[in-house]
Amino acid sequence: MTSPQQNEPIWQQITQDLRLDGRPLILFDTIDSTNSRALALASEGAESGTILIAQTQSKGRGRLGRSWESPRGTGLYFSIITRPQLPPADLSKITLAVGLALRNGVAKVCGIKPLLKWPNDLLFEQKKMAGILTEANIDTEGKPTVVIGIGLNVNTPATVFPAELANHATSMCIAAGRNFDKGVVLTVILHEIEREIERLANNDFKGILVDWRAYDATYGKWLTWMTPRGKKISGMSLGPDEDGLLHIRDSEGTSHPILSGNLKINLNGNRQVKSKMM
Ligand code: BTN
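Above: inputs. Below: predicted complex with biotin.
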């Protein structure tokens, strides 16, 4: 671990806030992936609530084996170790709860209205601003340790995104036309995450779902789903159900529950919503 650049305001501010809130924090200048390190530390018994944050990642990971671009200093790249009191079957709900928290935190700081694309993307004007990678280890007693990894483009100018992402990625500064203090952004998001995780622990996933659905970027839209086995299924998004699974209804009227895989919004193929989910 190299030493953090203590002269940058973000590190000073985070350290102060976290001392006040008592959250353990590990800062990295460069690391392969905060999620990989968090999983390793979690298996060594790191405290629940520990946060790992890096200025840049050399092997930032996204869902479905993708990589996550982590340009130095412009974004927030962090992971939180949690040991939620939830059965392993409920873990997919965490990604939705954290997505809602991230959405609300960004909306508060930035003054914009971003949307959520199931299961883990934060979108603004149909471009991706942030992603969440939730990973879990289940111990021999069946108790899960969950690592929540978040990559958020904060002060990333359009010119910094690689060419293949240029039309698909955005940042808070592109959306709002100004830069943000990353320490403030992080602190607000952490508060929102704690709030939603507490709601989850209090069995209020229904309430989380009501809020999540209000920001659903794909509800009623025609989607193509690439299953993990490489099969393509197209249908209209009916939104996530009460277990956190997304449902799409194909042209024959069959509803497909989706647990994972890749989703594409067919921008030219939207259809009318005929009926809502239960
Ligand atoms: C996705 O959209 O596919 C999820 C992206 C998650 C990226 C974050 S950056 C911090 C943490 N460390 C990683 O290696 N990945 C997550």
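The helical segments are 9-21, 34-43, 92-110, 172-176, 182-201, 205-213.
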